[in-house]
Amino acid sequence: MVLLENDSFLTELTRLFQRCRTSGSVVITLKKYDGRTKPVPRKGHSESFEPADNKCLLRASDGKKKISTVVSTKEVIKFQMAYSNLLRAHMDGLKKKDKKSKSKKTKATQ
């Protein structure tokens, strides 16, 4: 997995979306990141770790290529605006969900 800066992450994410436009999918995950690179120690060890500030870890993958970035508290608003514009621009190829007919629903409930 490649850890990128925020701007380069957005450009690479754009490339991932363009590559997967006709077939394939892009998986994006977001989670809280406290800066740890090692697992949490067991109860016997009293090693306290205090994160300096809250951060978010974003990961994106198309199955072949994985990219990630860490967004700090100061850059959240700027990154969120650019990220939302990117998602709006590339979510036009979604398939509509098939609606089931009402007759199947009434048969199932009876």
From TrEMBL:
Main location: cytoplasm
Keywords, ordered alphabetically: Cytoplasm, Phosphoprotein, Ribonucleoprotein, RNA-binding, Signal recognition particle
InterPro entries in the cross-refs: Signal_recog_particle_SRP14, Signal_recog_particle_SRP9/14
Entry's localization field: Cytoplasm
Biological process per Gene Ontology, one example term: SRP-dependent cotranslational protein targeting to membrane
Pfam family, one: SRP14
Gene3D superfamilies reported for this sequence: Signal recognition particle alu RNA binding heterodimer, srp9/1
GO molecular function: 7S RNA binding; endoplasmic reticulum signal peptide binding
Record's GO cellular component terms: cytosol; signal recognition particle, endoplasmic reticulum targeting
Keyword GTP-binding found: no
Protein function: Component of the signal recognition particle (SRP) complex, a ribonucleoprotein complex that mediates the cotranslational targeting of secretory and membrane proteins to the endoplasmic reticulum (ER). SRP9 together with SRP14 and the Alu portion of the SRP RNA, constitutes the elongation arrest domain of SRP. The complex of SRP9 and SRP14 is required for SRP RNA binding.
Family: Belongs to the SRP14 family.
Assembly and interaction partners: Heterodimer with SRP9; binds RNA as heterodimer. Component of a signal recognition particle (SRP) complex that consists of a 7SL RNA molecule of 300 nucleotides and six protein subunits: SRP72, SRP68, SRP54, SRP19, SRP14 and SRP9.
Protein name: Signal recognition particle 14 kDa protein
Organism per entry: Myripristis murdjan
Gene name of the record: SRP14
